[in-house]
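quick one before i forget lol
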Amino acid sequence: MRLSEWRAKAPVRDALGPKVMAVVAPVLGILDVEADPQVWVLWGDDPGSRFTILAPIPAGLVLVSVRITGATGPRAAAKIVRWSRLQLGELSVETEGSHRMISFQVESSVLRGADDTADAVGRFALVVFAAIEGRPWPPFDAPGRRRTSGAAAGKAGAAKGAKGSVGAKSASSARGTTATNRAPGKTTPKLPALTAGSGSGASGAARATADRHRSQA
């Protein structure tokens, strides 16, 4: 899960609240961890006073130890353990009926869970194994659950807006073309009509010619 999702599901109110994040975010940034990384949070027995954040990055596993005391407030200490030096225990899975249980040791910490949490621990462990072996990382999230980043969502929205704009311009152009074709006098020019005077002149000339022929006869 993303760090923001862990914040929303924290077992203790404000365990990852603004005051705690004010000391966690800077250490993550110094170690080149993204703003909202994929992490695992080990709440421990007293999540209101201490817990550990595990954040995989290409360089290694980032471990952030958070301590919350009333006198001095939250404190965060972080380090990167390179993948080649990371100490792992066994990944053990047990099933009973429809329930699943898992245990996975990373350094001195043990990740445990049942059912959906067991599935999440298993996916996190597979990411760690892949990182150590230099293989492409499998997805952190369960199949069918993909989180779209803000940048990707922004690009998708911009592309959708551009398509809508092009479509609107095309429709407007088509309407303009249709209106132009239907406008009178634009596509089929009318021939000038003969005036009454021109018709009368032609008839008079014909009569004069006929009179000359009769007089000669």
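fyi Residues 150-182 form the longest helix (33 residues).
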